[in-house]
Amino acid sequence: MKRVNVGIIGCGLMGNMHAMSVMNCIDEGVFAGRADVKLLAIADSDEKTLAQRADLYEVPVRTADGHELCEAEDVDVVYVCTPTKFHAEFVVDAARHGKHVFVEKPLGTIPQIEEMIAARDAGKVNCQVGLVLRYDPLYWYVGRLVAEKAGEFGPMQNVIFRDDQTYPYTGTGTHPSTWRADKDLAYHGTLFEHSIHDLDQLVRICGDVGSLAASVRCFNDKPGIEDSATVLLNFKNGASGSLTSVWYAADRDSRRGELYFKNAVVELVPGMLGIGSLHYKVLSEPDVKVGQGEIQAAFLGTVFKGMKVPPSHAYFYETVAFLRSVVHGTPPPTPLEDALAVHELIEACYEASQGKKVVSI
Question: Which of 115, 243, 322, 330 lies deepest, with the highest CB count within 10 Å?
């Protein structure tokens, strides 16, 4: 039976979410009989947070130095959940020591991502990126629906997508950290940090982008950390669309999407950790509402066919998909190259906004 000892670097919001998801995999016996999965070690520079997480999940190995996890012979998998600035540093070190790596988004600068890809290839390890909406059953279902009903819906004409989130750097409530307000650690704001998910899904559902224009603004007192972005997209299939991305003080995290076709409209309102609501209308036919149970069952029965995976949330599914690639020795479903493509789109948005021009992709 394959040994899969997991180490997590960074025990904040996302580190905790992934630790919980790994433990859920163990408790649910997702890989029972095929792999012995353990949460063996965690690392965090904050002594109090480190102790709290280690005690909560009964993790035997704890350290303030993430590089110790990268070098440890008894660690097989490393999750990198640090502030963005340190992603490349730990990904490269872990890959160099033969560890499979899961790294949170955003990855970093384009040169840093290229460095990660080179290290992964040299180390011959798996590396998956935390583009978690790929594991949200609602988005997965919408993508399948659009593909399967292409003939009935007709050509796609337009898409509207909105993503608004309370400031994720207040140090309180659902956002207990403050580092996302520091440009040196975070690099950018809402478009880079949060709407990397939205652009990833827009491409997956609507197709490749041919050109774009953007307006990126800062209304807060955090220099270089944008809290408002509007992106106008021209897709190569002829459709156009818009993405609105906002950080603000209202206590709400919300997304909403509308897709318009010649003969149909699809509306989705995602939930906080998954599912939400979905309905569509074709011509003069009655409105069709797709139930959460149907969405969940279709997702689990297709993505995890033949596996014992209970209904849960997107972060859990993401962890199952990554650990499955490690256990089976198959390529991860969300490789670095996919994230690089989205990062290049984001860089094009900044270029378009700064130059007040349309940028071809």
Answer: 322
